[in-house]
Design brief:
Order of helices and strands: HEHEHEE
Number of helices: 3
Radius of gyration: 16 Å
Helix content: 10-25%
Structural class: alpha/beta
Distance between the termini: 32 Å
Protein name: Aldehyde dehydrogenase domain-containing protein
Strand content: 15-25%
Number of strands: 4
Domain Aldehyde dehydrogenase: 3-59
Strand order of the largest sheet: 1-2-3-4
């Protein structure tokens, strides 16, 4: 697996880099500064933006949508006759405190993540739920 990490000198530099180079799917910021976090969550142009929690929460099943059948980073994705609800897109904000994604309880077949410790990074406590805010 590959993890993209870049050290930056400001939240503005981070936001500019992410908005230029990301897939638009899910981004996360780790900071103790609530103003920095809110700026990041508000200005990063991705479907999911997270503060102090794992991007492994980015899953339709975890969001309560049932089985995830696909993902889209497009802003308009519907085809054929479409009503107003079909044109609405959503942005999700997840607020955490070192939250990580637990294994999928009750999934058939059983699924689990393999977490590896990254040298120099403190281990976060395993907490099953984080606060999810849906923005339309």
């Amino acid at each position: 697996h590959t993890m993209a990490v870049k050290a930056v000198s400001s939240v503005d530099e981070a936001i500019g880099h992410i908005n230029s180079h990301s897939s638009g799917h899910t981004e996360s910021v780790v900071t103790e500064d609530p103003t920095c976090a809110e700026t990041f969550l508000r200005r990063v142009d991705s479907a999911g933006v997270y503060h102090n929690c794992s991007t492994r929460f980015a899953d339709g099943f975890r969001y309560g949508f049932g089985a995830e059948v696909g993902i889209s980073t497009n802003r308009i994705h519907a085809r054929g006759p479409v009503g107003l609800e079909g044109l609405v897109i959503h942005k999700y904000r997840l607020y955490g405190n070192g939250h990580t994604a637990a294994d999928f309880a009750g999934a058939e077949p059983s699924r689990s993540y393999i977490h590896k410790r990254i040298e120099g990074v403190a281990a976060a406590a395993e907490i099953p739920q984080a606060k999810l805010a849906k923005l339309s």
